[in-house]
Each structure stands twice: as structure tokens, then as C-alpha cells.
Amino acid sequence: MANHNNLAIEARHLVKRYAELEVLKDVSLDVHEGHVVSIIGSSGSGKSTLLRCMNLLETPDSGDLTIASESLAFSHARRHRPDRRQLQRLRTQVSMVFQQFNLWPHLSVLGNVIEAPMRVRGLSKREAITLGEHYLERVGMADKRDQYPAYLSGGQQQRVAIARALAMEPRVLLFDEPTSALDPELVNEVLGVIHGLADEGRTMLLVTHEMGFARDVSHQVAFLHQGCVEEIGTPAHVFETATSERCRQFVSSVA
Q1: Would you call 19 helix, strand, or coil by DSSP?
Q2: Statement: the pTM of the whole predicted model exceeds 0.90
């Protein structure tokens, strides 16, 4: 159990390979309850793969992961896969917001938000609707509940995707570059919602290329380089006094 020391995520020595390519090489990372940790780094550094390992969309080849009190051990010898019940429990505790929204086109906004609470958490339709309406209100999308995704802007779709993640009432929220598919003028409406969630004390792990936002909202920032955590610390440390030359170069190139 990770909770005795207030950790929502405890990753130890995670390795992930695709054939000969080692995308994650011995990554360890802690996320404390109520904290926001941002992962930064250049394209191909392993950021999205790390996030996908956190909710087991990808299975690590080796290492240990404790997330929301579910402990998993992976080894080369026996590609340990969590059993279905453990996976189900994990999925109720951890929600992910993707780059590409991933909304169901044939469901209304409200339909998208209530689907997982009914199917995964087993809520009644009435309970799910109450919850769904609450979280659509929270992200400023209550008035669009009966619309279909095709009629929404990218920013609106992403806010619905955030409401859908929140409706699972997870202990941990994962964001995979939530603004990278958006037109520049729509980025702030989504960042504003995420900032509000941070202010509420939600536990979040965020892959982002919005450096100002990462600096503003994070308790810690991790710089990934070629599948390793090359630098980790407070935003002030990573952005101003990093010891890694590569991290300093990256930060100055995107600043």
C-alpha cells in the first residue's frame, strides 16, 4: 500500500520496450496525494509512454508500480499482467484525458460522460446523470449536454473529455498533452479548467509542452530525456537551476 507515506503514485524502475527499442529505461517517479507533477521533454523522450504505463494502456516490461493503492510488479520472466478485477479497480481510481479527446461521436455530451460511471462503476443511469451534470457544470459545458461532439469546438470537446474523466471520481487524473490538438485561441479555456482542478487539490500527472503552465501549476516537474528522468524538482529548480545540461538546453529552447 502506497498510502502510508501519502503517495498516490509510486513508480520504481519502470522499463518499456518495443522490440529492440527501449522507450523507458529505469524510470522512477513519485506523485504525492493532492500534488500536480508535470512531465516535460522533447518529442520521443518517452513522456506519453510513461503516462500510458500508469493506467496500463501499456504494460511495462519490468519494474513496480503502486497507483491509488493498487500494487503491480512487472518482470521480464513472466510478463505479469494484472487480472481483470485488479485492472477494473485501477481504472476506477485513475482517469486519463487524451490529446485527441476520444469522445464517442454517436453519443451526446452527457451520454459520453455517463457511459463509464455506469459501465465501470456500476452506477444507475439516474446516479450517473446527476454526476455527469455536476461535472459538465464544473467545466462550463452544462448548456451543451444534448449536443453531439461533431458540433463542438476542440476546446469544448476537451472540456467534455475532462468532465468524463472527473465523473469516474478518480484518485488520480492523467493528462496527455491535453492542449496539443487545439487551436491556440482555445488552449487557455482548457488550461483554465485544469488550473481550477489543481486549486481544488486534485492529484494530477500531466504531460505538457505548455511550459508557463507547468511552471505555474506544478509541485514538481520531471524532465524526460531518451527514456530517463534526467532532472526532477520544483518548477523553480527545473526551469532555473537544473544541473542537467540537456534540461537547461531544452528549457531555454522552449522558453
Answers
A1: coil
A2: yes
